[in-house]
Design a protein that fits this description.
heterotrimer; A: MetI-like fold; B: 289 residues; MetI-like fold; globular
Chain lengths: 291, 289, 385
């Protein structure tokens, strides 16, 4: 064999390598790329068929701009807070040596991370609604939250409900990272004179930080994309981008703005793209240390 | 007197059942115990209280007193419930099959032949998470041919896209845990063709990764609302939404059932896996490996 | 000693402590990991804990470090009981089997970590870390991260990290097991040289008897939580206390024989081994089945057409050639021949003789406790086949 691989050889082997990915590629292209492209392109089309910026213009002003802001605020809140709490919970479970607890939490996280929409809404109406159980408990203690401006159907109410699936998602994501923390590090740090605080400050924390950050980014994307829960709880009373997109599919659109929904979709895709970019950067660092 | 070989096996078994065994000194464990208890208690409360609240609500008799199962007994007779349930289960099965048939060979392939692409794959499989289903369904409804749109199979195929990140990650984790390359090379050097290698060697060793993938897919499909409702198919979550009544009891009851159903399915699958682990561990112990 | 070495040495000025492990007991479930384990380490001494997997050697080390609790027994450092002292305060340097370097820090920061914990100031810390890195010859890699270094380099940094805090005791938990053979040998020497120069009391856990014998001042052979023998390497090799030690350390042949009239008759041949009257050998009843244990270098083999042994294998070991000779169609013994001697080819008939050395006699088939070792003196040149 010659010292340098012939370019032809390289191309051929690269192509051969790609063959195995064809089914996956076809599937993804058909059911992900094509619909996504349809949305992106549709954002620039006017109802009469020509190209236009009008959709974008509408989507970035007024009630739709407000929707974007609200969506991002809600996503920030429900990614950072449940994210941090999720790490703490995951760590509490992880340091417990009881196998059954870990298994239960692992299954539970899987179940709750996917649980949303109408069923979740009903659970929380029964809990924190005007006549909900917890509301009644708090009233007997003298403090009815609804009298003090709380409502399940506003921003903070929705945020609390979002936590129900955001926190388990973080637990799912961060547990493998915690398991990647080698006991040898902890023991070595101990032997060198470090207590728990020192360990987490200098070793443990920095090592899982990329994973935590990645998890929070993931949670942010997840909250931004959420539709069912918000729809079930608010039916549109809070302007959120995903809800607004849904209303376009339901047919209540102003004439000439049929494709604004697609422009809104494009906006979500753009934000998602940025999130994904940072996520992959962060994962690179995380995987190197936790190998 | 315990023979040395047995001692090794005993330590192995502990590891096996309790997942990666961490050796923390007893002193350190004691110091975090109380803090851990508080965290777990609060978390447990946060997640269990709404379930309890819903349970109580659904069992309340008229005027908020008494105890009645009428909310539950009324369910099967509600219009469309059985059909919606059946549809959801079928979709879950279909999506699972699609995902496994597609992703198991693909991830094995990537692990074996294209390890450099692994990070690319990690990123690719995040895409369905961050491209919202709501956006996806708009595009799908626009470009899908009518023959597909009129069947639920379109939904199953799209659910595959949604489930893909979870499936890939589970399989990836499982593949990383076994030494895939060595297993495959061993099998092939003994004469195994690709099909039987995959089926008899790789898949059995991937059990927990597969299980995890199935579990997450089923959970996803049973709970998915957005795309189903906008695609105008009445799956279980859509049925609950459409059926929401102001009195709430029946709706709450069904919501609880939806949760319980998902949980049962997942527990059953996990329990199957656990029994296999215990059986394997016991075999190793008896054999004194 | 070069100036560099002298200067590097001055970075670490420890004084070895006396370590006493008294009557340690520890059970994991039904298994006794440590069973009445007692050992004393003199200041500056390197003691190797040697034994098969699961014998408790790592447990003993971790008990000393403070990572395992005890069911019973005491750990004393310079006479002070360590029971209530957590690992952070025990002032011991520890090197783990692998991957113990903090991945988010450079080599220098890793080494400086212990100093940071002791509140040494930034610049001074960095400088001392560099000095210690110099001691292990890695000052050029100071800014590298663990994932950029080879296994051998990582372990050297780990060693530097342990030494930087000037510990009075150094604990090594199979530090070489995960390394390539060649690197292992190099690092072995380096550790020993450093340890001797710095006079740190060291406990070294390994399952590799070659490592233990070549590095240690004394070797402690363990089995199922108990000590089989503690001695210098040469004594351990020459005078094993039990058949287990005899077979674990070095290679040992087992030849079946029968007690006869104060002697041992080997292999139903007419040749026997005379025993000194004073040895406990005499306590065995006649006709007792025994095994005679003798090392390959305690036998000699010559080609002989009338010999009843057949050479089955030859293995070139570098300094000697080891021949596997089948005696009586029944017993395979290994005999070492110097490479200078005429080689007996495979398949030829041969005669095996005992050299003038002590051999051990044990009950037939015993591998466990209960058998005692006796020195018996064979007649020079006794042929056993």
């Amino acid at each position: 064999m010659s010292a340098l691989p012939l370019p032809r050889r390289r191309v051929r082997s690269a192509l051969a390598g790609a063959v195995g990915l064809v089914p996956f590629g076809i599937y993804t292209a058909l059911f992900l790329v094509v619909p996504a492209a349809a949305v992106v392109l549709g954002a620039f089309r006017s109802p009469s068929g020509g190209w236009t910026w009008n959709n974008i213009a509408v989507a970035t002003h007024g009630v739709y701009a407000h929707g974007f802001v609200m969506s991002i605020e809600l996503s920030l809140l429900t990614s950072i807070v449940p994210g941090v709490l999720g790490v703490i919970v995951a760590y509490a479970v992880f340091t417990s040596r009881r196998g059954p607890l870990r298994r239960v939490v692992s299954t539970a996280s899987g179940v709750f991370a996917q649980f949303g929409g109408v069923p979740l809404a009903f659970l929380f109406i029964a809990t924190l609604g005007t006549t909900g159980l917890v509301t009644r408990w708090m009233s007997t203690l003298g403090f009815d939250p609804w009298d003090h401006g709380f409502s399940l159907y506003t921003f903070f109410g929705v945020a609390i409900v979002y936590t129900y699936f955001q926190l388990p998602l973080m637990v799912l994501v961060i547990t493998p990272a915690l398991e990647g923390l080698r006991p040898a590090w902890r023991e070595a740090a101990s032997g060198l004179g470090a207590n728990s605080w020192h360990f987490w400050r200098y070793v443990g924390g920095p090592v899982i930080f990329p994973s935590v950050l990645g998890g929070i980014l993931l949670l942010f994307g997840s909250a931004l994309s959420a539709y069912a829960t918000a729809e079930a709880l608010t039916s549109g009373s809070i302007p959120l981008t995903s809800i607004q997109i849904g209303s376009f599919l339901n047919g209540n659109v102003i004439a000439g703005e049929q494709n604004v929904g697609k422009a809104l979709g494009l906006g979500l895709i753009v934000v998602a793209g940025i999130v994904m970019f940072f996520y992959s950067r962060v994962q690179k660092r995380a995987s190197r240390w936790l190998r | 007197m315990v023979a040395l070989g047995e001692v090794d096996a005993l330590f192995d078994v502990e590891e096996f059942i309790e997942q990666p065994q961490r050796r923390f000194s007893a002193a350190r464990l004691r110091s975090v115990a109380w803090w851990r208890g508080i965290v777990l208690f609060c978390t447990g409360a946060f997640f269990l209280i709404p379930i309890y609240a819903a349970l109580r609500f659904s069992l309340e008799g008229p005027n908020g007193t008494g105890f009645t199962l009428s909310a539950y007994t009324a369910i099967p007779s509600q219009a469309g419930f059985t059909a919606a349930l059946w549809l959801s289960l079928q979709l879950a099965a279909a999506t699972t099959v699609i995902m496994l048939v597609l992703m198991v060979p693909t991830s094995v392939y990537v692990h074996l032949r294209l390890p450099g692409l692994r990070r690319f794959f990690d990123s690719i499989t995040i895409v369905p998470i961050v491209i919202p289903p709501i956006v996806l369904i708009i595009g799908v409804l626009q470009v899908a041919p009518t023959f597909l749109k009129s069947t639920p199979y379109l939904l199953a195929l799209e659910y595959g896209i949604l489930a893909m990140p979870f499936v890939y990650r589970s399989l990836d984790a499982g593949l990383r845990a076994i030494d895939l390359k060595t297993l495959v090379e061993a099998s092939r050097s003994l004469g195994g063709r690709w099909g039987s290698t995959l089926w008899r060697v790789v898949v059995p060793n991937l059990r927990s990764g597969l299980l995890s993938a199935v579990v997450l897919t089923v959970a996803l499909v049973l709970g998915e609302f957005t795309m189903a409702s906008l695609d105008l198919f009445q799956t279980l979550p859509v049925w609950i939404y459409n059926f929401a009544q102001d009195d709430g009891s029946v709706s709450t009851a069904v919501s609880l059932l939806a949760l319980v159903l998902t949980w049962i399915v997942l527990m059953a699958i996990s329990a199957l896996d656990l029994r296999r682990i215990e059986r394997t561990a016991k075999t190793r112990m008896d054999a004194g490996s | 000693m070069t100036t560099t070495q002298r200067r590097a040495d001055s970075a670490v000025k420890p004084q070895g402590a006396t370590v006493e492990l008294r009557g340690l007991r520890r059970r994991f479930g039904a298994t006794a990991a440590l069973d009445e384990f007692s050992l004393t380490l003199a200041p500056g001494e390197l003691v190797a804990l040697l034994g098969p997997s699961g014998c408790g050697k790592t447990t003993a080390l971790r008990v000393l470090a403070g990572f395992e609790t005890l069911d019973d027994g005491r750990v004393l450092l310079d006479g002070r009981d360590q029971a209530r002292i957590p690992p952070q305060k025990r002032d011991m340097g520890m090197v783990f089997q692998s991957y113990s370097l903090f991945p988010n820090m450079t080599a220098q920061d890793n080494v400086a970590f212990g100093l940071r914990m002791r509140k040494v100031g930034g610049a001074q810390r960095k400088q001392r870390a560099l000095q210690v890195l110099e001691m292990v010859g890695l000052e050029s890699e100071a800014q590298k991260y663990p994932h950029q270094m080879s296994g051998g380099q990582q372990q050297r940094v780990a060693l530097a990290r342990a030494l930087a805090i000037e510990p009075r005791v150094l604990l090594l938990d199979e530090p070489l097991s995960a390394l390539d053979a060649k690197v292992r040998v190099q690092l072995r020497e380096q550790i020993r040289v450093l340890q001797t120069r710095l006079k740190i009391t060291t406990l070294f856990v390994t399952h590799d008897q070659e490592e233990a014998l070549s590095m240690a001042d004394r070797v402690c052979v363990m089995r199922a939580g108990r000590i089989e023998q503690v001695d210098t390497p040469s004594t351990l090799y020459a005078v094993p206390a039990t058949p287990f030690v005899a077979e674990f350390v070095g290679t040992m042949n087992r030849i079946p024989g029968v007690v006869e009239d104060g002697r041992v008759r080997l292999l139903d041949t007419t040749v026997d081994i005379r025993t000194a009257a004073s040895t406990p050998q005499g306590n065995r009843a006649p006709e007792t089945a025994v095994d005679v244990l003798v090392r390959p270098e305690g036998l000699a083999v010559t080609a002989s057409p009338s010999g009843r042994g057949i050479v089955m294998t030859t293995t070139f070991l570098g300094s000697v050639t080891r021949l596997g000779v089948l005696l009586n169609d029944d017993v395979l013994v290994y005999v070492d021949q110097p490479n200078s001697a005429a080689q007996v080819p495979v398949g030829s008939a041969a005669e095996v003789t005992l050299r003038e050395r002590d051999v051990m006699v044990a009950d037939r088939g015993s591998g466990g406790g209960g058998a005692s070792a006796e020195g018996v003196v064979p007649t020079v040149g006794d042929t056993i086949s």
